C-alpha cells in the first residue's frame, strides 16, 4: 500500500503512544529471542549486521519464501432460489462453512474496533509485523511472566488463509489434519513464513481490506465462519446492526471458540469475561466513550440477550421443496459452468458463494405438497405408504415440482416413521431411489411403436385372455422371446373382452389388447422406443424387454415418466430434465445453468396420434377420468397399477406433464384392500392428480395451453383392408381368407338359406368395404333348409281346397 494511502487509513483511528515504542533498542541489549532477532534481521537487512550462523540460515529460508498471499474468496454459503408469485425468492442455503462474506460498509464499526482492541491494538501503526509487540512478549516471556504471543492481525490472517487453503484443496483427512497442524505450528520456519507473508499483505492490500478479510474468514465456533454468519447465528441480527456489546461478544469467540461461543450456556460466563476485557481495551484506546462502555458492560451474556438462530444448512432445513433441493445438490456434477470436470465442480460448490436460480415453482410445489399431505399422510401407520409428484415443463424439461409425502431429512435426527433421506421422485444417483414399477403407464411405448409401424388407432386387436408362447424379439436368439409355460396376462376386469380397437383398449387400459399389439411388433423395438423417450430404470440397470414389461414391470422414476409423456405432449421432442436456470458466482459474475437439451425422438405425426389416443383415459368412461378438472384444458394421460402394490398416473397438457406415484415403500400391502381418508388407496392417484392439474392449468406462468393436433388420417384408421366376398364359401375357407389378410373372424347366426348347409350366407362388413386391420368379420351361415313356397288352393263352390291343383 502506498505510504500516503496508509497514512490516510491510519488517520481514521484514534492512537496512543505505545509503551513499547522504545523496546526496539532494548532488543539489541537483550539479544531478545531467536525469532525476534531473525525477524528484525530479515525485515531490516542489510541495515543490521547479522553474524549469527543460525540467523544467516534462517534468512536464507526467509528469502526463499513467497512475497505475499492473496485474499480471495473463502468458502461461504450458496443460496438456492425458486419462483414464488412471479418473484425469485431464496428457499435453501448450502454450505461447507456457514459463511456469508460482506463488504466493509456492511459491518458495524464496533466489530472492527473490537477486533483491533482484542487482537492487535497497534494494527493501524505497524507494517504487518508488530515489532514492539514482539519485544513486549519477549520481555514478558523471558522474565517469567505469563507467556504472550505477538501475532499481528496480518499474521493471524496468513495462518487462517493457510488453513482455508488446505480445507479447500485437500480431501484426505489425515493429510488435511497434518496441513492444519503445520499452519499452526509454533516453529521458527512457520513464524518466518507468517511474518514475511504478513508484510507482503501490507504491501498488496490496505488496512481496511485486511481487517475485513479477517472478519470474513475467522471461525466463530462450530461451522460458523465470518462476522455476518456469527451475528445471525448468535444474536439473530446482521453484522451491520451489531450493538457494541454484541460485537465485543462475537470477537471474544475467535481465540477460543469451543469455550466462548455463546451457543452453549456453559460458555456464557467465559464469553462475557473476555467481552468485558475487550470493552475495557476499547475504552482505554479511545475507541468508545465512557457512556458507551458503561451501557455495554451492563448487558449480560445470558438467555435474555443471546438469540440463537435455528440451523439452516442443507436441504433438511430448506423452507420448501426439500427433495428438489437435494436433487440440485446431486446435480452439481452436471453443472459445467462450475468447472471442467466433476471434481472441479464439486470443489467449486464446496467453496460456495453462489446464487443458484432454479426451475422450481414454489407456488405449484406448495399445492403438490399440501395435496400429498392431505391424501397420502406420512403418518399412515398400517403400512409403509409412499407418494411422489413430479412435474416438468413441456418443451424445456424444466422441473416445476418435486414433492413427496415423507418429509425429506438427511440429518438422521428426524422420526424415521414420517421422514426419509430418499427422494422418491428421481434416480438412485440423484436421490437414492431405485424407482417403482409403472404399471400400465408403460403402455405408452407399445402404443408409439404400434403407430411407428403404420398401424392405426381404429385397428382392432384381440382383447381376449389367451396364452402366448413367443414374441418377436430381434435382440434374442432366433429373433424370438420364448416362454416355455406361456404368458397369459389377465385383464383388470378378469374376463376376456373380445375384439376392440386401440382407442377403446387405451381408454379402458385393457391388458390383453396391448399384449396382442406387442405380439405383432417386436419387444426389442418397444424397449428402444422407451429408451429414445428418455426412459431408464432409476437404479441404472438395463431396461428389461420381456413380455411383462409391456404392462410396466420396469422401474423408472416418476420424474422420468413425467418427462416421457411430455415428449408426446411436445410433439415428439424429448427435453432432458433440468433443475438450474442460471447461477451468479461469488464475484457477481453471471454463469449459465443447465442448458436445455431437446431433440426430436418421435415424428410429429406419431406424437399427434399418440396424444389423440391418450386423451381417452381422461374422458368419461376412461380409467383416469376422475382426475380431469374439466376446466377446458386438453389433457392426455394414462393410469397404471403394478400388482396392486403401486399405483401410477401420468397426465399432461401442452404446457406441463405430471407423474403421480402412490405405493408401498416397503412391504406388500394390496392398495385395493385398504382405504385412506375414505378413498380406496388404489384410487388415490386420480384424487391427488386433480387439484395439481387444476392449479397448473390456472397458472399465469404455464396456463392451459392449446389443443393437441389432430392425428393424420392414416394413423387414425391404420392400414385398411378391402373386405373380400366370402358368400358361398365354407366357414373354414372363409375364416382362412379373412384371417390371412389381417382380420378377425367370428361365426354368427345360422339361418335358413337355399345355399348348401355350412356355407356363408352374408358377412358384416359386406364385401368391398374398406375396414381397419384387425376388425372382426362376422358371418352368417346357411342351415341348408330353404323355405318352401306353395300356390294358394282353388276354391270350390262348397268351399275348401281343390285337390291336385299345382
UniProtKB/TrEMBL annotation:
InterPro entries: Beta-lactam/transpept-like, Glyco_trans_51, Glycosyltr_51/Transpeptidase, Lysozyme-like_dom_sf, PASTA_dom, PBP_transglycosylase, PCN-bd_Tpept. Residues 717-783 form the PASTA domain. Residues 788-806 have a biased composition (Basic and acidic residues). Residues 782-806 are annotated as: Disordered. It catalyses: Preferential cleavage: (Ac)2-L-Lys-D-Ala-|-D-Ala. Also transpeptidation of peptidyl-alanyl moieties that are N-acyl substituents of D-alanine; [GlcNAc-(1->4)-Mur2Ac(oyl-L-Ala-gamma-D-Glu-L-Lys-D-Ala-D-Ala)](n)-di-trans,octa-cis-undecaprenyl diphosphate + beta-D-GlcNAc-(1->4)-Mur2Ac(oyl-L-Ala-gamma-D-Glu-L-Lys-D-Ala-D-Ala)-di-trans,octa-cis-undecaprenyl diphosphate = [GlcNAc-(1->4)-Mur2Ac(oyl-L-Ala-gamma-D-Glu-L-Lys-D-Ala-D-Ala)](n+1)-di-trans,octa-cis-undecaprenyl diphosphate + di-trans,octa-cis-undecaprenyl diphosphate + H(+). It comes from the Bacteria. One of its GO terms (biological process) is proteolysis. The chain crosses the membrane at residues 20-45. GO terms for cellular component: outer membrane-bounded periplasmic space. CDD domains: PASTA_pknB. PROSITE patterns: PASTA. It comes from Lacisediminihabitans profunda. GO terms for molecular function: penicillin binding; peptidoglycan glycosyltransferase activity; serine-type D-Ala-D-Ala carboxypeptidase activity. This is PASTA domain-containing protein. Keywords: Carboxypeptidase, Glycosyltransferase, Hydrolase, Membrane, Multifunctional enzyme, Protease, Transferase, Transmembrane, Transmembrane helix.
Amino acid at each position: 500500500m502506498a505510504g500516503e494511502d496508509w497514512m490516510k487509513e491510519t488517520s481514521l483511528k484514534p492512537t496512543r503512544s505505545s509503551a513499547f515504542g522504545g523496546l526496539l533498542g532494548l532488543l539489541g541489549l537483550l539479544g531478545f529471542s531467536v525469532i525476534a532477532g531473525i525477524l528484525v534481521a530479515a525485515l531490516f537487512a542489510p541495515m543490521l549486521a547479522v553474524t549469527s550462523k543460525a540467523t544467516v540460515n534462517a534468512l536464507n529460508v526467509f528469502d526463499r519464501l513467497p512475497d505475499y498471499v492473496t485474499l480471495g474468496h473463502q468458502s461461504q454459503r450458496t443460496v438456492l432460489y425458486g419462483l414464488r408469485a412471479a418473484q425469485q425468492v431464496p428457499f435453501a442455503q448450502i454450505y461447507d462453512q456457514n459463511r456469508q462474506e460482506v463488504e466493509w460498509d456492511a459491518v458495524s464499526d464496533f466489530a472492527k474496533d473490537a477486533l483491533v482492541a482484542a487482537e492487535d491494538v497497534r494494527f493501524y501503526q505497524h507494517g504487518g509485523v508488530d515489532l514492539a509487540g514482539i519485544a513486549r512478549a519477549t520481555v514478558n516471556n523471558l522474565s517469567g511472566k505469563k507467556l504472550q504471543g505477538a501475532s499481528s492481525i496480518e499474521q493471524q490472517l496468513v495462518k487462517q488463509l493457510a488453513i482455508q487453503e488446505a480445507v479447500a484443496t485437500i480431501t484426505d483427512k489425515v493429510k488435511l489434519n497434518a496441513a492444519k497442524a503445520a499452519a499452526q505450528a509454533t516453529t521458527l520456519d512457520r513464524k518466518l513464513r507468517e511474518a514475511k507473508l504478513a508484510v507482503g499483505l501490507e504491501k498488496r492490500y490496505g488496512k481496511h481490506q485486511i481487517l475485513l478479510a479477517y472478519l470474513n474468514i475467522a471461525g466463530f465456533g462450530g461451522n460458523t465462519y465470518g462476522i455476518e454468519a456469527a451475528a445471525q447465528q448468535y444474536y439473530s441480527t446482521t453484522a451491520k446492526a451489531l450493538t457494541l456489546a454484541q460485537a465485543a461478544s462475537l470477537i471474544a469467540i475467535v481465540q477460543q471458540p469451543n469455550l466462548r461461543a455463546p451457543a452453549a450456556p456453559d460458555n456464557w460466563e467465559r464469553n462475557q469475561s473476555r467481552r468485558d476485557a475487550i470493552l475495557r481495551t476499547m475504552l482505554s484506546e479511545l475507541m468508545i466513550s465512557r457512556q458507551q462502555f458503561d451501557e455495554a458492560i451492563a448487558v449480560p451474556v445470558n438467555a435474555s440477550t443471546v438469540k440463537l438462530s435455528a440451523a439452516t444448512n442443507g436441504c433438511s432445513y430448506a423452507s420448501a421443496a426439500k427433495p428438489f433441493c437435494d436433487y440440485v445438490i446431486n446435480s452439481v456434477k452436471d453443472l459445467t459452468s462450475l468447472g471442467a470436470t466433476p471434481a472441479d465442480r464439486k470443489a467449486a460448490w464446496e467453496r460456495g458463494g453462489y446464487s443458484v436460480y432454479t426451475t422450481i415453482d414454489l407456488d405449484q410445489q406448495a399445492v403438490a405438497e399440501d395435496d400429498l399431505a392431505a391424501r397420502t399422510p406420512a403418518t399412515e401407520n398400517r403400512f409403509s405408504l409412499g407418494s411422489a409428484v413430479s412435474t416438468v415443463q413441456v418443451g424445456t424439461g424444466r422441473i416445476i415440482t418435486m414433492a413427496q409425502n415423507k418429509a425429506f431429512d438427511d440429518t438422521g435426527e428426524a422420526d424415521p416413521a414420517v421422514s426419509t433421506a430418499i427422494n422418491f421422485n428421481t434416480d438412485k444417483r440423484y436421490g437414492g431411489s431405485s424407482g417403482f414399477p409403472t404399471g400400465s403407464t408403460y403402455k405408452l411405448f407399445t402404443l408409439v411403436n404400434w403407430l411407428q409401424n403404420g398401424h392405426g388407432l381404429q385397428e382392432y386387436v384381440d382383447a381376449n385372455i389367451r396364452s402366448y408362447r413367443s414374441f418377436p424379439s430381434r435382440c434374442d436368439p432366433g429373433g424370438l422371446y420364448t416362454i416355455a409355460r406361456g404368458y397369459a396376462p389377465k385383464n383388470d376386469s378378469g374376463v376376456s373382452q373380445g375384439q376392440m380397437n386401440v382407442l377403446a383398449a387405451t381408454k379402458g387400459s385393457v391388458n390383453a389388447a396391448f399384449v396382442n399389439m406387442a405380439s405383432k411388433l417386436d419387444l426389442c423395438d418397444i424397449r428402444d422406443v422407451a429408451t429414445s423417450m428418455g426412459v431408464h430404470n432409476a437404479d441404472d440397470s438395463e431396461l428389461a424387454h420381456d413380455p411383462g414389461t409391456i404392462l410396466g414391470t420396469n422401474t423408472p422414476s416418476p420424474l422420468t415418466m413425467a418427462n416421457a409423456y411430455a415428449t408426446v405432449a411436445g410433439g415428439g421432442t424429448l427435453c432432458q430434465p433440468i433443475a438450474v436456470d442460471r447461477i451468479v458466482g461469488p464475484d457477481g459474475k453471471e454463469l449459465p445453468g443447465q442448458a436445455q437439451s431437446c431433440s426430436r425422438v418421435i415424428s410429429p405425426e406419431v406424437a399427434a396420434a399418440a396424444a389423440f389416443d391418450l386423451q381417452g383415459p381422461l374422458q368419461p368412461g376412461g380409467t383416469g377420468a376422475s382426475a380431469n378438472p374439466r376446466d377446458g384444458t386438453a389433457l392426455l394421460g394414462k393410469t397404471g397399477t403394478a400388482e396392486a402394490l403401486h399405483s401410477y398416473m401420468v397426465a399432461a397438457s401442452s404446457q406441463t406433464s405430471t407423474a403421480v406415484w402412490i405405493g408401498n415403500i416397503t412391504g406388500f400391502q394390496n392398495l385395493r384392500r385398504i382405504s385412506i381418508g375414505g378413498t380406496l388407496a388404489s384410487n388415490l392417484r386420480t384424487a391427488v392428480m386433480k387439484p395439481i392439474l387444476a392449479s397448473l392449468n390456472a397458472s399465469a406462468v404455464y396456463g392451459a395451453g392449446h389443443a393437441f393436433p389432430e392425428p393424420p388420417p392414416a394413423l387414425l384408421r391404420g392400414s385398411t383392408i378391402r373386405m373380400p366376398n366370402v358368400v358361398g364359401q365354407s366357414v373354414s375357407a372363409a375364416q382362412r381368407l379373412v384371417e390371412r389378410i389381417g382380420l378377425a373372424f367370428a361365426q354368427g347366426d345360422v339361418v335358413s338359406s337355399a345355399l348348401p348347409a355350412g356355407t356363408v350366407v352374408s358377412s358384416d362388413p359386406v364385401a368391398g368395404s374398406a375396414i381397419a386391420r384387425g376388425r372382426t368379420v362376422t358371418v352368417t351361415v346357411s342351415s341348408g333348409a330353404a323355405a318352401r313356397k306353395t300356390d294358394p288352393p282353388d276354391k270350390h263352390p262348397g268351399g275348401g281346397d281343390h285337390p291336385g291343383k299345382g
